[in-house]
Each structure stands twice: as structure tokens, then as C-alpha cells.
Amino acid sequence: MADVDATTVRLEIPPRRDHLALVRLMVSGTLSIERQMAERVEDLLLAVTEACANAIQGQQRLGRDDQIQVSIELGVSGGMDSGRDEVVVTIVDHAGGFEPGDLSPLPPATDPGRLRHESGLGLTLMRGHVDEVRFTPTVDGTAVQLVIRT
Fold first, then answer.
1. Is 126 exposed, middle or buried (0-12, 13-18, 19+ CB in 10 A)?
2. Which strands make up the sheet holding 132-137, listed edge to edge?
3. CA torsion angle for 32, 74, 51, 109 (degrees, to 10)?
4. Within 13 A of 42's CA, how many CA atoms are on the CB side?
5. How many Å apart are CA 118 and CA 120, to the nearest integer?
6. Domain count, the chain
7. Is the dihedral of CA 24, 66, 64, 74 positive or negative?
8. What does the pLDDT read at residue 86?
9. Which of 146, 144, 148, 147 is nearest to 56 (CA)?
10. What is the CATH number of the domain that holds 46?
């Protein structure tokens, strides 16, 4: 179920990968409203896809069927003194939570030992494609905020 108001779009999806295309469509459609953000759409889509895929994987690992919440806030002010406009996408899961700093570091992409790691680039991709990534623990999971600025 999605709802729209002047500044926020919300969507809830089941923890299944076949719903990632719907999330991507919501993000690209919503950003088409914000013309000054048009050049950032692909970056944000990649980061949102990674965050949602991590949420889905975490919930599936725990056998949780709770809906994953995705929201987009348009035109969020960066603060009284910054004068920046932001788009903030928040993904909230029910996967038990994690601390990003506790994750084991992976070998660099140029290291042949990296080939033994099937996954693990999600956080790096998120951080490399948006201006800010915030992780906030929730009661039973994590809220990830992905921020892009004009």
C-alpha cells in the first residue's frame, strides 16, 4: 500500500526480492517530480536497491514476514544554516539489527582473496552513491536512511 502527500511517499513490501522492481519504480517516479535531483536518480536507485536487498535477506534469514517500510521525503531541509534541499529514503526492516562498525572488513577489490567473498559490497555501494548513510537501531531491526542533496 502506498500513500502520497506533499512531501512524503510511503510503501510497504513483503520481504521478497520480486518487490525490488516496485521500490525502484517508486523512487524513480517520485524523483521525477524533483527536477534538480534528476541526475542523482541512478545513484539513489542503486543505494536503495542494496539497502532493500539487505533488509530482505536479513528478514528471510530470521524467517520474518513483517512488511519492510520504504519512505521517500522530498525537499527535506538540510538545516537552518545549510540551505540545501535533500531527498531522504528510509528503509525499515525487522531483521534483528546490526552495527555497521562490527562487520568484518573485506579484502580490497584488487586482492585475489576478494573472489572468495560472494557478497559484502552493499554498504560500500550505498556509501559511494549517496551523500550520507545513517543507521538507526529500531526495536526489532534497523532503519537505514539514504540522503542525496542538491
1. buried
2. 2-4, 8-13, 68-77, 85-92, 142-149, 132-137
3. 70
4. 1
5. 7
6. 1
7. positive
8. 85
9. 144
10. 3.30.565.10
For each of the chain's 150 residues, which pLDDT tens digit applies? 555 444 789 999 999 999 999 999 999 888 877 666 777 889 999 999 999 999 999 999 999 999 999 999 987 554 444 444 889 999 999 998 766 665 566 666 677 766 565 555 677 788 889 999 999 999 999 999 999 987
Nine-digit cell at 43? Answer: 545513484
pTM value is 0.80
- Domain span at residue 68 reads 2-149
Grid cell in block for residue 99: 552495527
Residue 51 grid coordinates: 539497502
- What are 105's three cell numbers? 572488513
Q: What are the cell numbers at 46?
A: 542503486
